[in-house]
Amino acid sequence: MKRREFTLKTCPALVLSIVGAAMSESCSSSKNEATVVIPQEEKDYLDRLKLIGTAGFMIDQNKGYFHLKHASYSKLLTAINFVNDLENGVLLLRKSDTILVAFDNCCPHLGTKNQWSFQNNKFRCANHGNNFGIESGQTSRCSSNSQFGNLRSFKTSLYKDLLLVDFG
Hints:
- This protein is an alpha+beta fold.
- 23% of the residues lie in helices and 31% in strands.
- The strands form three sheets. Strands 1-2-12-11-5-4-3 form a seven-stranded antiparallel β-sheet, covered by helices on one side. Strands 6-7-8 form a three-stranded antiparallel β-sheet, with no helix packed on it. It has a two-stranded parallel ribbon with strand order 9-10.
């Protein structure tokens, strides 16, 4: 085969294969797309908000999740406010902008759950006027006929506007 004949037969195929590969490479979007990685904590947060829905809370085994933007818990968005959640048996208190704490809402004296007020770092049960602290130590148990001490507390953690209370 002569050089000119060879060039005419092979060059168009060679040029087409080079240009085709380059075009194929430039049109491929998989190599140029940025991948957004969502942290697991954020995925869990979004999943729990879906499960909570309009209820404002959910209980999963011995953990409670409370959505602070829900009307039932929105007082907890500002400091020195508390919510007595009768359905879940817990007093939720926002001590400061960064600290939320949770306590058993059962009065250590006679077991009353619905007559609480909060003042001077103490919860007061209006049933008999007994005051109970929010510190650790000297915990008074529900219906133990105790007239002083600290309420039983639960561990808490906050992610964005979702409060986790560990009842375990």
